[in-house]
Amino acid sequence: MQFFLNLGPIFRALMRQRFSAILVVVQIAITMAIITNGLAITWERFLHIERHTGIDEHNSFFLTSSGFTQGFNPRATIENDLSLIRATNGVIDAVQTNSFPLSDSGNWYELQTTTDKDAALIPAASYKFDEHGINTFGLTLVAGENFSAQDTLWLDEADSQWPSHVLISQATASALFGEAQWQTAVGKTLFVNQSTPLIIKGIVKRLHAPWVDWPHVEKTIISPARVTHNSARYVIRTQPGRLNDLMQSLSASLAKENTQRVIRKVKSIQQAKDEIYAADIATVSILLVVIVVLAFVTAMGVAGLASFNIDKRRQQIGIRRALGASKGQILQYFMLENALLCAIGAVLGVLLTFMLNIFLVDRYSLTPLPLLYVPIGVLILFFISQLAVIKPAVRAMSVSPAMATRSL
Amino acid sequence: MFKYYVQLALSSIMRSKVHSLLTMLTIALGIGACTITLTLVSSMSANPISHKSEQLFRVQLDNWDPNQAAISPDLPPEFVTWTDANNIVNAKQAKRQSASAITWGMVNPTEQGLTPFLALMRVTSKDFFPMFDVPFIYGAGWDESAEQNNDYVVVLSKETNQRVFNGVNSVGKTLTMLGATFTVVGVLDDWHMSPKFYDMSYGAFSAPEDIYLPLGLKAVFELPHGGITSCWKPIESQRYDAFLHSECINFQLWVELEDGEQKAQFNQYLTNYVTQQKTLGRFPRPLNNRLLDVTQWLEYKQVVKQDIQVMFWLSVMFLLVCLINAASLLSAKLHTKHSEIGLRRALGANFSQIILQYSVEIVFIGLCGGILGVLLAIFGLQGVASLYAGYGQLIELDLTVVTSVIALAVVGTIIAGLIPVYSACRPAPAMQIKQ
């Protein structure tokens, strides 16, 4: 009860210096609006970047071998290269593939469960690699089985033939056969281009499409094919800790092995990921810096106002102490004064937070702010400003009762 | 009198060094944040060819699926087919016209004793160079007859010329690439349009290509389709020319038109062209031609990332917080000066003299804060540039941004600082002296 009785005099004292009190309240409100919206954007981006693509991102790299002479034999080169890479110490497995997650290039097909023209079309990104792919990418087979060596077709660049069996991701299976029945997809037939039938041999838990912002990023289809092309892309998975040295030594030994081609674009999956998300990583970093600096500036403002008030009221504090107020009560007074400012700021702040969010959502198609962020924002501001007021309040606490007798 | 005010301001600032520095720093942080985001926005929304932005037009035709628009709800595709690219360029109905696409191939400079390398190439029309004001150090683009006869001619970028010919004048020399012998006709000077509005298929800030060659050579050498290829109809066969004759889009078509009259004429030509193609069974959708000039095109492509615009608004609010903070710091300082103000007023200083006197101090603080803020921004931008790896080198602080933010700092500080001065002048001087 005592606690609430204090609020009256505190409020009246604040009203005597409306200008600085209003400044602090507005500052707290705007800070809250920025921090709350900034944190929401940051967290959303962070989750987007950290989304698992389904492959072993930390221990894999890729390179491209491009043949340039008239007599260059793509198929023999691919076979030689892969046996050399797979036999290298430290390599877990390697595969030739048309594309991989985070590569940002590839193609997609529309899948159906019937050849009916009106049936729903399910878009799925297409990967083409042989039975080594599951092990190279570190995919988890959740139903059915992997390709066998006999399933794999060698295709010419211009050859649009499809192998008879395919693997699909769980998301593709769910989209084709229903969320609950995805497991039943094994052994069933799906159609590509409304005509070509393909038998589903297995389902992998997760394998993302090559384009990170594609709306259907989880839907993929893998066909056991090796496409011969003057340029071939290999993905290589190494034992932990061997990535960097193998990136160098393997590209050197491949270049030496066959001089009718050049080895280029040697990069780790992690590098590819950092490049593709560069803008998002920049957004997250800049916003975090802004949030921290802003919190600091506002804390300084709050501390500044408090210490200014305390300096002005040294005599008054002395009188209160002389009249029997304990040190704790003085401390409580200033903490409470700050809490009151903060509460008024928070009311205004919630309003501003929503206004800012509506503006951003409306103008830049951001996702609306999850409500949970509002109490988080209030708590953060409350914490910052109480923290900022501790030092000046402790100084006020140590004003001696003798101050009452002195004039300023 | 003014000199006296300056002396007063300096001595007041020196008396409370920490306080003044804190105020400047607060303003500097806000200004720094705003400068950084403003620079990002302005360097990304830059129009690299502003002097002829109203004369260059992107041509879009709607050859798409009758049941589904290329870009919802009803926009035509952004690229054109090989057929339309060639027909429109050869019709020569505009002042200049160019169709181009990215491709790649092996360069094998064995005569120069270099290892072969894969080069990014652009197949394009001869008008490409004069249209986009492409600068040459040596030679020029190819001529009409080379274009018509599909001569094996190339234009090299400055880097490629450096790499292959050590930077010497290579015009007239030969270069082995794509398994044939080409003659160099021109070497470009440094040229990096940013945003790369004429072809943003590899990103608005991607690097220009290494080598340029006539459009017709794409079919001769069956060069790969770089950039974005999109088809709404299955291609009839797997042969290379089946792609060229298909409805697949891949080519960037631009025209240069000098005035409204030429634009109207060209529009009429496009309408006639599409109508004529419709009689051949193409263009099943309703007439939907689009001519966007460079500014409209950049706006349509949303080159400035939304994130950066969001950050810009957040930084404006951040500046507001900093100014409010500066205002409360200044007002706290002024409270210690109430008796001084009272004394001055009692001695005959009027309201405007008091305001002027404090304005000098406030403007000084604001100016220092602004300059400090720009310095902070210079450091900050280096950090930001390293975050945006792809186009970091393109972020530059420009003078307009710098002068406008410093002006903003001064104006903001005056508003923030004079409100407390105004309230300090209200009570009767006698009351203030007594305090």
What's this, in brief?
Chain A is an alpha+beta fold and 408 residues long. In chain A, 50% of the residues lie in helices and 18% in strands. Chain A folds into 2 domains: 2-50 and 278-405, no CATH class; 73-259, no CATH class.
Features:
heterodimer; A: 408 residues; alpha+beta; 2 domains; 4-stranded antiparallel sheet; B: 435 residues; 11-stranded mixed sheet; elongated; membrane (chain A); transmembrane (chain A); cell membrane (chain A)
Share of helix of chain B, binned: 40-55%
Strand residues, percent of chain A: 15-25%
Structural class, from secondary structure content of chain B? alpha+beta
The most extensive contact between chains is:
A-B, 51 and 45 residues
Query: How many E-type strands of chain A?
Result: 13
CA distance, first residue to last residue of chain B = 28 Å
Q: Assembly type of the shown chains? A: heterodimer
The radius of gyration over CA of chain B amounts to: 31 Å
What is the end-to-end distance of chain A?
A: 34 Å
Low-pLDDT runs of 5+ residues of chain A are none
Q: Largest beta sheet of chain A: what is the strand line-up?
A: 3-4-10-7-9-8
Largest sheet of chain B: 11 strands, mixed
Mean residue pLDDT of chain A: 88
Shape call of chain B = elongated
Helix content of chain A: 40-55%
GO cellular component, one term (chain B): plasma membrane
Protein name (chain B): ABC transporter ATP-binding protein
GO molecular function, one term (chain B): ATP binding
Keywords (chain B): ATP-binding, Cell membrane, Membrane, Nucleotide-binding, Transmembrane, Transmembrane helix
How would you portray this structure in words?
- The complex is a heterodimer of chains A (408) and B (435).
- In chain A, 50% of the residues lie in helices and 18% in strands.
- By secondary structure, chain A is α+β, with helices and mostly antiparallel strands.
- In chain A, strands 3-4-10-7-9-8 form a 6-stranded mixed barrel.
- In chain A, helix 1 (2-15) crosses helix 10 (327-364), helix 2 (18-50) packs across helix 11 and helix 10 (327-364) runs antiparallel to helix 11 (373-397).
- The longest helix of chain A is centred in the last third of the chain and has 38 residues, at 327-364.
- Chain B has 435 residues and is an alpha+beta fold.
- Chain B contains 15 helices and 11 strands.
- Chain B has helices at residues 2-15, 17-44, 82-91, 128-131, 144-148, 158-165, 217-220, 240-244, 260-279, 294-300, 306-335, 338-346, 351-387, 399-424, 429-434, and strands spanning 56-60, 80-81, 96-107, 117-124, 136-139, 153-156, 174-177, 180-188, 211-214, 249-256, 290-293.
- In chain B, strands 1, 2, 3, 4, 5, 6, 7, 8, 9, 10 and 11 form an 11-stranded mixed sheet that branches.
- At the A-B interface, helix 2, helix 8 and helix 10 of A face helix 2, helix 11 and helix 14 of B.
